[in-house]
Amino acid sequence: MPTQCTHVKDHIKDVKPHSKGCEDCLKTGDSWVHLRMCLECGHIGCCDSSKNRHARAHFHATQHPLVRSAERGEDWGWCFIDEVYL
């Protein structure tokens, strides 16, 4: 497993979040724990601690591997493929 993300160069775009909550949970009226923003398209999904894990589902559906925390005061990212922090 790499110690650094090998996808940063090709998958980080200048994006803005699409919503203030998990896009998929908002559609179904469900709840979430924490939010993650896709760094390739701006999709907001819920974290792996949320029951629906929409951020990870977005990765599997789109192959957009990089997310960052969309929580206030947090400044970290994650690569789903390399399984490392950015």
Task: Describe this entry's structure for a reader.
The protein has helices spanning 8-11, 23-28, 54-62; strands at residues 35-38, 44-46, 66-69, 77-79, 84-85. A five-stranded antiparallel sheet has the order 2-1-3-4-5. The longest helix has 9 residues, at 54-62. With 86 residues, it is of the alpha+beta class. The protein contains three helices and five strands, in the order H-H-E-E-H-E-E-E. The relative contact order is 0.25.
Write the layout of secondary structure elements.
Layout lengths: L7 H4 L11 H6 L6 E4 L5 E3 L7 H9 L3 E4 L7 E3 L4 E2 L1
Antiparallel strand pairs: 1-2, 1-3, 3-4, 4-5
Order of helices and strands: HHEEHEEE
- Poorly predicted segments: none
CATH class placement: Alpha Beta
Largest β-sheet summary: 5 strands, antiparallel
CATH architecture annotation name = 2-Layer Sandwich
Rounded radius of gyration (Å)? 12 Å
Strand content: 15-25%
